[in-house]
Structure formats: structure tokens, C-alpha cells
Write the C-alpha cells for this entry.
Amino acid sequence: MPSINLLPWRQALRQRRKKEFAIGIAAAVALAALVTVLTHLTVSSMIDTQHRRNDLLKAEISQLDKAIEQIVALEEQKSAMISRMEVIEKLQSSRPEVVKLFDQVVATLPEGVYLTSMKQSGRKIEFNGVAQSSTRVSAFMRNIDASETISAPELKVIQTGRDTGPGSQFTLFAQMRAGVDDTEEAGPVKTKRPALVTGIGQ
């Protein structure tokens, strides 16, 4: 039988398979590298997009914070303006009450009593004056009790002597009646007027 040498064919087949395997390995490595690069690029693009969104949200939040600060400042200004308007309205509404109070004080002064000063703090009123006698002061207190504006007279001090002249100096406190505006929020009012004289020397 003739002899056939198969070694070159087998060696060629082996070399071809090695070459195909190497090509497959190279293709797999290249494909893996391509997938890795594409994945990295995709993730980087997603991260950049998220960063841009975060920056946009931060800018909008900053604008909202500024708007909130402006709103808070406007609310504070509004509250301050409302408070001022309330004080102004209270002062305007208290003007006729002050006039009424002075009219009532003049009406309650009996003969032989005059006031040197009058001070109001909230609903409390302090009278300082001179009377011909303690009886005149008692009459003044009774008139205060009967007044429509002031009440609850309370005598604190009464002095007689050379320094007081022919009369007696006194200090008397009273309260504003309910329904009369309280001017305490506008601060204590201290009024010193020319002496309110009734019947001195009679």
C-alpha cells in the first residue's frame, strides 16, 4: 500500500486553530475594551448630566432662598407698618378722649382747689395741686367718683406749712373708667398746664 504522510496537514490544522483562537481572544478583548469604554462614556455622560441638574437645582434653590428672604423682609416691613398704623389710629382715636378727660377734670375741681400738674401713665392719673383745706380735697375726690371718665380717687400726700402758703399741697391718684381708651402703648403722658383755678380766695 502506498504510504501517505498526514503530519503537514495536522500541523497546518493545529496552526489554523491556534490562529483562530488567538483571533477570537483578541476580538473578545477588543469587544470587552469597547464595551468598557462605551460604559465609561455612558456613565460619565450620565454623571455630567446629573451634575448639571444639580447645579441647576442649586441655582434655583438659591433664587428661592433670596425670594424667601425678600418675602420675610416684606412681611417684617408689613408688620412694622401695621403696628405704626395701629399706634397712629390709637393716637387719633384718643384725641377726643384727652379733651374729654380735661373737661371732666375741670368739671370735678371744686371751689378752692387748683392743680399744679397732672400726669397720666396708662390708666392711672396723678394729680398734684393746692387746696384751701382738706375739705376741698374730699370734695374733689367725691366729684371724681361721680365723674364719667375717672374714678377710684386715692389720696397719697397732703402737706401744710409755710412753704405751701395759705393752702395745703396734695397728691391724689385716680383711674380711667372702663371704656376710655388706654394710651399706655403710646407711652406715659405728662401734662403740666397753667394752674387750673377755681374759687381761690373765696
